[in-house]
Design a protein that fits this description.
Rossmann fold; 2 domains
């Protein structure tokens, strides 16, 4: 990267200057809209998230504890449940809660009981369901600037766990990949990194357990060579040698001098600094990009409004006639229940149901075929672990279907809107929806019922289209939405899980034939549940989209009525007054168009930097 030339502002400084200038322009046109953009900027969280992944027994959880300077916090347990993440965030006092996104209220519990909630070797408290993830908050300085997600390592990156870890990492600001100093990268680790190359912008590496292996420097060199050959995108990435054990020993050192030496040699402080330096600055730029996107949307709305005002000043009565005709057309569309946009909306929703049904069937068939092969080659111990692998596969399928459903509903909405409004009108509608206080379509979870033995088979998982499971990471579509003005983003709440609970509540037979029968029943139950949930969500989506679009029609009709009143006023103006106002409006149109181009140009530069970082 070349150094900035002397006297030339950096990109963050240029973006800040542009943001203030565009806000000033917007304040002159519509102070309320400018206030909304400022509120969005202040309310937007800029805290980055780091997902920690690695093979089993690589010292991952020990390193997380060292980074948080809290020994024993994340359970170091080879039998941690594969379906449960640990999300660490900041709070003034320590607290822990089991989370069931979109389905059940979080369940708080004492921190000393954490291992009972996340380890397959321990029983859950009586009457409790397995959580989708566990959130632990406390007064840790590092967590004031970023959140940390400890993914389970059971199963290995060559199994379904690798796919689930990949989904979590793809939604994070950065990935911290942990390997140990016993040997160079394995084939499965390199395969995982190759798969991640196009999905995660920022990857850091930690070489753990350097105190236990004297030849760790040779392993470090071998790791660099393997990255250059098999995952060249990460060839220049820093690999941080660390020892969580040395960092923990520093807390028991006989004096401060020894403690300081141990902490320095552990490499943990250096890794903490690298995480903060690398991520916090990028997080600020992401926040600025989101503000620029809001400004661009607001300026597009003002451009459409000013164009309508210019037509009124230029055309007079002919513009009034066109507005009346458009008002009458939209009024008919709003009153009709059998024409145009409603039929298009209904047809697109049905098409979505069919497409998702086919895709879910294919993925379930693939999962069943894969696990039948695994059963045939498994020994007794592997059969015992298989239900956890099945559960992860079902969660991954659920996550995929959720993301596909969110994306398809955005497409459905675009089709329905294009049926109703012109391109200029859409600029206004998009901005109105953005300021509506939240997405018009928020799909509800299935109705809650008292848990029964059958209900406990289903451990629901929530997935949000912009933002993943709660604080696990950002929404899967967040990066897409940042650079693509998607209208009506939908929040999807669907999910399932069968294998994990069945492994805990039913004695697992080592007989392969019985296991195959169990697999067929589990996947059939999961498929049935997923179909039902998707159908319920689409029914709800169709109803809410219809209401949202009807509301958009009403707003547009009201706006046309307001424009007609302005046209009447302009008709009564004398020629000199009209000419003066027309000149002012024309200048404002030019300023707004240039402002929007400026915002889009900076968004393009930020996007280019992001893509360049991915390529390096």
């Amino acid at each position: 990267m070349t150094a900035p030339s002397a006297g030339k502002p950096t990109l963050p400084a240029q973006v800040k200057q542009a943001r203030e200038s565009l806000l000033a322009t917007l304040r002159e046109l519509d102070p309320q809209v400018a206030k909304w953009v400022e509120e969005q900027r202040r309310a937007r969280s800029t805290k980055p998230s780091v997902v920690v992944v690695g093979e089993t027994n690589r010292g991952k959880s020990s390193l997380v504890n060292a980074l948080l300077a809290t020994p024993g916090l994340s359970p170091v347990d080879a039998e941690v449940a594969t379906a449960t993440y640990l999300v660490f965030d900041h709070a003034e006092d320590w607290l822990a809660k089991a989370c069931y996104p979109g389905q059940l209220a979080p369940v708080g519990f004492p921190l000393e009981e954490l291992i009972r909630w996340v380890s397959a070797a321990h029983e859950l408290p009586e009457g409790q369901l397995p959580p989708r993830y566990v959130e632990v908050c406390g007064p840790v300085p590092l967590l004031e600037r970023l959140s940390l997600v400890d993914t389970p390592g059971v199963g290995g990156l060559d199994s379904a766990h690798g796919e689930l870890a990949m989904e979590a990492a793809a939604n994070a600001t950065a990935l911290l990949f942990v390997v140990d100093a016993s040997a160079p990268f394995t084939a499965t680790e390199l395969q995982f990194l190759r798969a991640m190359a196009d999905r995660v912008e920022t990857v850091l590496f930690a070489l753990s357990k350097i105190d236990q292996f004297r030849g760790w420097r040779e392993v470090l060199d071998a790791d660099r060579a393997l990255l250059a050959e098999h995952a060249p995108r990460f060839a220049d990435a820093l690999i941080h040698p660390v020892s969580a054990r040395m960092f923990e020993m520093a807390g028991r050192a006989p004096n401060e001098q020894a403690a300081t030496m141990l902490r320095e040699k552990s490499g943990v402080a250096e890794l903490q600094g690298a995480l903060q330096e690398l991520l916090v600055g990028r997080s600020v730029m992401l926040g600025e990009a989101n503000t620029l996107r809001a400004l661009s949307s607001a300026l597009a709305e003002q451009h459409a409004i000013l164009n309508a005002e210019r037509r009124a000043l230029s055309s007079g009565e002919s513009e009034a006639e066109q507005l009346r005709a458009r008002r009458d057309e939209l009024t008919v569309e709003r009153r009709s229940s059998t024409r145009g946009w409603q039929l298009k909306l209904r047809g697109e929703v049905q098409r979505t149901r069919v497409e998702l049904g086919h895709e879910a069937s294919r993925q379930m068939r693939d999962a069943q075929s894969y696990f039948r092969q695994q059963i045939d080659s498994a020994d007794r111990e592997q059969l015992v672990q298989l239900p956890q692998q099945v559960d992860m596969a079902l969660q991954t399928i659920s996550q995929r279907v959720s993301g596909q459903l969110a994306h398809r509903l955005n497409q459905v909405t675009d089709v329905a809107l294009a049926e109703l409004f012109s391109a200029e009108e859409l600029d206004i509608i998009r901005a109105q929806f953005a300021r509506g206080g939240g997405p018009p379509v928020v799909l509800r979870p299935p109705d809650k019922r008292p848990p029964t033995a059958e209900d406990k088979l289903l451990v629901f998982m929530g997935v949000s289209g912009g933002a993943g499971a709660a604080k696990l990471a950002a929404a899967p579509l967040a990066g897409f939405a940042l650079f693509n003005p998607v209208v009506l983003p939908a929040t999807i709440v669907i999910g399932l899980g069968a294998g994990w609970w069945m492994a805990r509540t039913r004695r697992h037979a080592a007989d392969k034939q019985h296991t195959k029968q169990w697999l067929v029943e589990s996947i059939a139950d999961a498929r049935s549940t997923l179909d039902q949930l998707v159908a319920e969500q689409l029914i709800e989506a169709e109803q809410q989209l219809a209401l949202a679009l009807d509301d958009a029609l009403s707003r547009r009709i009201e706006a046309i009525e307001a424009e007609l009143k302005e046209v009447d006023k302009t008709i009564k103006m004398d020629a000199q007054e009209r000419s003066k106002k027309l000149a002012l409006v024309t200048k404002r149109i030019k300023d707004v168009a240039e402002g929007r181009e400026r915002a889009e140009a900076f968004l393009g530069r930020i996007r280019t930097l992001r893509d360049r970082a991915r390529a390096e």
